[in-house]
Amino acid sequence: MIGGPTLRYSLSCQAREKTEQPGSLVHAPSPLGSLSARRAIYSRNSVSWASTRAWRHDLKQSDIRALRTAKQNVDEGVIAGAATEVAELVGALFGPLNSWLVSTVAVGHSRRPDSFAVRLAAAVALELRLPFDKIFADRFVDGVSHPKEFRKLPALQRVLDPQSPVLLIDDVATSGWHIEEAVNSLRAFGVGCFAVCWISGTLKASQRATIDHARGLRHAHPIRG
Q1: How far apart are the C-alpha atoms of 160 and 173, rounded to whole Å?
Q2: Residue of 41, 56, 117 lying closest to 82 (CA atoms)
Q3: Whole-angstrom Cα distance, residue 106 to residue 113?
Q4: Whole-angstrom Cα distance, residue 198 to residue 90?
Q5: Over the stretch 133-165, which tens digit does the pLDDT of each residue have?
Q6: Which end of the chain is less enclosed by CB atoms within 10 A, N or C?
Q7: CB of 200 within 8 A of CB of 5?
Q8: Residues 21-38: what's their mean pLDDT?
């Protein structure tokens, strides 16, 4: 698939919102900039992944700059906040994932083995009380991460052959290319895998207004189970 991923489902539905509490993701401030809280599922070809937040269209560029700074500094505060959000979504989707392994996509443009995404995945594993390990070899590359450059990357190599299902964690999925590549590699090896990303997609003002209006109606008229 060329271009961006397909938004399959928004998880901001009544069934989920009725159980939200004031300290939940819907009400929590973003760990970084002005990211919008939106639990959603995206797809690229035959691979799907879930995400907890989306870029705000009007503030996307400033938030991208803030994320680059956080990644360069491996900001532990941002990582901790993002890990909590991702772990909460995983728990809501699956409950306890007994015997699963947490990992992440191959390190590339960050050019450091303990990259932001690696530390995020390790922090999620800690929150879920699951083991973490790197399955894919680092493949450091120069330049800016962009879908047009991905096909120039060396082939993906595994440094570990997992013997259990894998929860794949990434910080940002733009086209979903890296997630698709990693998930397909694990599936070909015969291992089940599901990916969860912290940030995916962009919300325009009209979309945010619709979501906020729906939340306001639910808060004004509580749903009783």
Answers
A1: 23
A2: 117
A3: 9
A4: 11
A5: 999 999 867 655 555 555 667 788 999 999 999
A6: C
A7: yes
A8: 76
Residues 192 and 103 sit within 8 Å (Cβ to Cβ)? no
pLDDT tens, 164-201?
Answer: 999 999 999 999 999 999 999 999 999 999 999 999 99
Per DSSP, the residues of 19-62 read: T--TTSTTTSPPSSTT-EEEEEEEEETTEEEEEEEEEEGGGHHH
Q: Is 175 left (phi over 0), alpha (psi -120 to 50) or beta?
A: alpha
The arithmetic mean of pLDDT across residues 99-111, rounded, is 86
The DSSP line for 62-112 is HHHHHHHHHHHHT-HHHHHHHHHHHHHHHHHHHS--TT-EEEEPPP-TT-S
Which residues lie closer than 8 Å to 210 by C-beta, 6 or more apart? none
pLDDT at 1: 37
Whole-structure pTM over 0.85, yes or no?
no
User: CB count, 10 Å around CB of 122?
Assistant: 21
What is the number of helices (H) and of strands (E) in the chain?
Answer: 6, 6
Q: Which residues contact 43 (CB under 8 A, 6 or more apart)?
A: 5, 6, 8, 49, 176
